[in-house]
Design goal:
Chain A: InterPro entries: AAA+_ATPase (IPR003593), ABC_transporter-like_ATP-bd (IPR003439), ABC_transporter-like_CS (IPR017871), ABC_transporter_ATP-bind (IPR050166), P-loop_NTPase (IPR027417). Chain A: This is NitT/TauT family transport system ATP-binding protein. Chain A: It comes from Neobacillus niacini. The structure holds 2 protein chains of 2 kinds. Helix content of chain A is 39%, strand content 25%. A 6-stranded mixed beta sheet of chain A has the order 6-7-8-3-9-10, sandwiched between helices. In chain A, strands 2-1-4-5 form a 4-stranded antiparallel beta sheet, with helices on one face. In chain A, strand 1 and strand 2 form a beta hairpin. Chain B is mainly alpha-helical. In chain B, helix 3 crosses helix 11 and helix 4 runs antiparallel to helix 5. Chain B has a single domain, classed as MetI-like fold. In chain B, 87% of the residues lie in helices and 0% in strands. Classes of the chains: A alpha/beta, B mainly alpha. The structure holds adenosine-5'-diphosphate and magnesium ion. The site of magnesium ion has 4 residues of chain A, from helix 1. Magnesium ion binds next to helix 1 of chain A.
């Protein structure tokens, strides 16, 4: 049995003006420890799917199983980092990263020091008492990641975590996140619209097509790319051929639409 | 290099100096207006260009001020009015915030009461005065209720709007950690709306003065509002002006204090 099972998800948003089908016939299995990327043009339902997996939205049809249990009623098993950091501006970094533990009543000396350790590991030493606005974009993103990881979720989902950062910061963070997740053996889903990022970070890349959002194709990343850091993967000779392959598929989606 | 640096600091000094000078001129004109107003009032009253019985004069007001200060009645009545106002605006703000929280809690309730809020907000609340006095008796409770009721509906509307405008993604973050609705309110909605609540406090100070003074007009047994009504009835306009000036000074001080509190709380 697979770790995460996404079974025939359909989702339609209803508003006064219209009914938008955001997702249709989504089925996917994710194994424990796997790193998956969702790639696709904006509007093809990636964020919607993450929200459904996180249990924030109830899909109009279909089920999500995590370790064979429906995700409704599971608490803190799934960590979800939104498209922006959404650190609470009135809370210090420490209060921000401990909020998950506090809400689920797991906050004690041990979990607190674990969270602060993680903050150090992420290169954010000595900023516990600062407010989010005193930090740079990259630092805030790292703090938000610590907040998500602090409750030790089994599955981590990241929605375009690096899209607002400059290129250099982004490359560094890719390596840092990849390292951290490897060391915890976490299962992760990354949403991105950057082909290179998807290839460099993941074991499998799921390509979505729009209107309605569907899984178009799934690409297995070559073995030699999986075992090296994202930065090195970007420079590996196997990188450009797989890049070309995915790029062509994406391109055919765009031209098919027109 | 060094030359350039000293030059810049010199220019900066000049700039600061010019700012101070401008500030001084502003202060100067403000004082001139103040002196001009009171001295022309005094002179025109003495020369009987204006009716001294009606318009009194600064010197008479000053004498009355000293007299009322000595017999203790000014401080006693000011104390009464001040207490009523403070309780009124705190109560109004608190009650308004609690009502807003209820509306946020139940979207259904908020839809249902929406037209009633509009009606209540449009209605002149001081018109409720007589009913309050009959219901609560002519004393502190009814006057404080006047001070509160005048601000409670507008506070509810403003604070509820700010609750609704909190970015839903903050709630999403909390929900991913399994937060309950109460936790969402405590961790995101309330702190995010704190600046709005403080700024309604500022508006409510002014509103509560109106409510309390009108309340004292009606009950007419104590307070500065009573002074004004009494002065009017016995045709002692010096007393009316004295009360007005005291209210102006104290209300300004109170407003400034709330503003100070606001700066302190929202500095972060
Ligand atoms: N709350 C919502 N109400 C109505 N339609 C929505 C809502 N959220 C997203 N949509 C629509 O669903 C589709 C998928 O959106 P989204 O999941 O955000 O895509 P992506 O993350 O891939 O850019 C879009 O067409 C979007 O307009
Ligand atoms: Mg999205």
């Amino acid at each position: 049995m697979s770790f995460l099972a996404i079974k025939d998800i359909h989702h339609t948003y209803f508003t006064k003006a219209s009914a938008t089908t955001a997702l249709s016939e989504i089925s996917l299995h994710v194994e424990e420890g796997e790193f998956i990327s969702f790639l696709g043009p904006s509007g093809c339902g990636k964020t919607t799917l993450l929200s459904i997996i996180a249990g924030l939205i109830k899909p109009t049809q279909g089920t999500i199983l995590l370790e064979n249990k429906p995700i409704t009623g599971l608490k803190n098993q799934i960590g979800y980092m939104l498209q922006q950091d959404y650190l609470f501006p009135w809370k210090t970094i420490e209060e921000n990263i401990l909020i998950g533990l506090k809400l689920s009543k797991q906050l004690n000396e041990q979990t607190k020091s674990a969270a602060l350790d993680l903050l150090n590991q992420m290169g954010l030493k000595g900023i516990e008492k600062q407010l989010p606005k005193q930090l740079s974009g990259g630092m805030r993103q790292r703090a938000a990641l610590v907040r998500t990881l602090a409750t030790e979720p089994k599955l981590l989902m990241l929605d375009e975590p690096f899209s607002a950062l400059d290129y250099q910061t982004k490359l560094k963070l890719e390596d840092l996140v990849s390292n951290t997740l490897d060391s915890f053996g976490k299962t992760a889903i990354l949403v991105t619209h950057d082909i290179g990022e998807a290839i460099a970070m993941s074991d499998r890349v799921v390509l979505f097509s729009p209107s309605p959002g569907k899984i178009h194709k799934v690409f297995e990343m070559p073995e030699e790319l999986r075992n090296i850091s994202p930065f090195n993967a970007r420079n590996h000779e196997a990188f450009s051929s797989i890049f070309q392959k995915i790029w062509k598929e994406l391109d055919s989606l765009e031209t098919g639409k027109n | 290099m060094k030359q350039g640096k000293t030059n810049v600091s010199l220019l900066h000094k000049n700039y600061l100096h010019s700012l101070t000078i401008k500030k001084r001129w502003v202060r100067f004109y403000q004082i001139v207006i103040f002196l001009l107003f009171f001295s022309s009032w005094e002179i025109s009253s003495q020369k009987r260009w204006i009716d001294p019985l009606l318009f009194s004069s600064p010197s008479k007001i000053w004498d009355l001020f000293l007299e009322k200060l000595q017999d203790g009645s000014l401080m006693a009545n000011l104390g009464v009015t001040l207490t009523e106002t403070i309780f009124g605006f705190i109560l109004g703000t608190l009650l308004g915030t609690v009502l807003a929280a209820l509306l946020w809690w139940s979207p259904m309730l908020s839809k249902i009461v929406d037209p009633y809020l509009v009606i209540l907000n449009a209605m002149p609340k001081v018109a409720l005065g007589p009913i309050l006095i009959v219901a609560l008796g002519p004393g502190y409770p009814s006057i404080i209720a006047m001070g509160a009721i005048i601000s409670v509906i507008i506070t509810t509307i403003v604070v509820y709007t700010s609750f609704k405008e909190v970015d839903p993604n903050y709630l999403k973050v909390l929900q991913t950690f399994g937060a309950t609705r109460l936790q969402c309110f405590k961790e995101a909605i309330l702190p995010a709306s704190f600046p709005t609540i403080i700024s309604t406090l500022k508006v409510n100070v002014g509103l509560s003065w109106v409510g309390v003074i009108v309340g004292e007009f009606l009950v007419s047994s104590r307070g500065l509002g009573y002074f004004i009504i009494y002065g009017f009835q016995v045709f002692n306009f010096t007393l009316v002006f004295l009360s007005l000036l005291v209210i102006a000074v104290v209300a300004t001080i109170m407003y400034q204090l709330v503003e100070l509190l606001e700066k302190k709380l929202i500095k972060e």
